[in-house]
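Example 3.2
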Amino acid sequence: MRSDLYLAYGTWILCLATTALVGCGADTTPGSSGSASGSSGGVTASLCTPKVSGTATSVEIVLKNMGPTDLGYLTSCGLPWNIETPDGSYAPAGVFSLLCEQMASSCPLDCNDNTMTPVPAGTSAKFTWDGVLYEPVDAAANECPAMNSGADCPKTCRRRIDAPPGMYTVAGSLSPGGGQAAITKTATIMYPSQTTVELVFP
């Protein structure tokens, strides 16, 4: 049984609000980057290789519970914050992301841990985005190692890239529990000049 916070992962864009997040291994992003060509046969091997510098600017994401009741988020099987770009890139990695440079023997189909991390009234939960996005790539079209992963794995793999400068929408979600719907808040930042974003609940 999934909690309100387990989002079918593919989403917060630094833009989400009501969009579902990527679920365990269920990456079905359409229009992935696999159509690009740069070598014979339309294969672009470079799309399989991470493009991260290790020096991307980090952003602190603060979810502030200013209401009278406790809120919380799924500890292992959910994402309290998310970013997604128009091309389908997202952050963070989520419960599971098949990386293009890796071959996985199997991929999880679901996540059933309903353990919650509480965010008591009057307190905040803080997270860090490392400035890395997970870009969608057609594993088979680009002959990435991920194309040889197990049968349950998605056809779209993810290449890690440094987020380019620009406007992003950060979405955060906390749940009151008891079967009630999660509360989602969003805020827009200019990256990389803005390094802190605060979302106030409820």
